[in-house]
Design a protein that fits this description.
With 107 residues, the protein is α+β, with helices and mostly antiparallel strands. The protein contains two helices and five strands; from the N terminus they run ααβββββ. Helices cover 38% and strands 25% of the residues.
């Protein structure tokens, strides 16, 4: 059965030749698609997250990357103190804050 499949292949040395220019253009096209599909959206999301962290202030209701919900008590340079529903105070790094669910001042 395998021999039958091999019989359908092109004889050695008679395959189609692809120009080097066509190979380079194909490679560049794949790199551009890769950039717009994977890298660019990830950079945009990281930029938005960094902007959100700079706007973080006491009184904001937040969710951490671990899923802990609480209210920000204090914001330091690299740490954030959060109070949970049962009045437990926890310290997190700023990067572990996933989102601000309610900014302070909103009802």
């Amino acid at each position: 059965m395998v021999h039958a499949w091999l019989a359908f292949g092109a004889p050695p040395g008679e395959g189609q030749q692809v120009s080097p220019l066509a190979q380079i253009v194909t490679l560049l096209l794949l790199m551009v698609v890769f950039w717009f599909v994977l890298i660019r959206p990830q950079q945009k999301k990281a930029k938005e997250h960094a902007k959100m962290l700079t706007q973080l202030k006491a009184g904001d209701r937040v969710v951490t990357s671990a899923g802990i919900v609480g209210t920000v008590i204090q914001v330091k340079e690299k740490l954030v103190t959060v109070r949970t529903a049962n009045d437990t105070k926890l310290e997190f790094t700023k990067g572990s804050i996933a989102e601000i669910t309610e900014p302070s001042g909103s009802e």
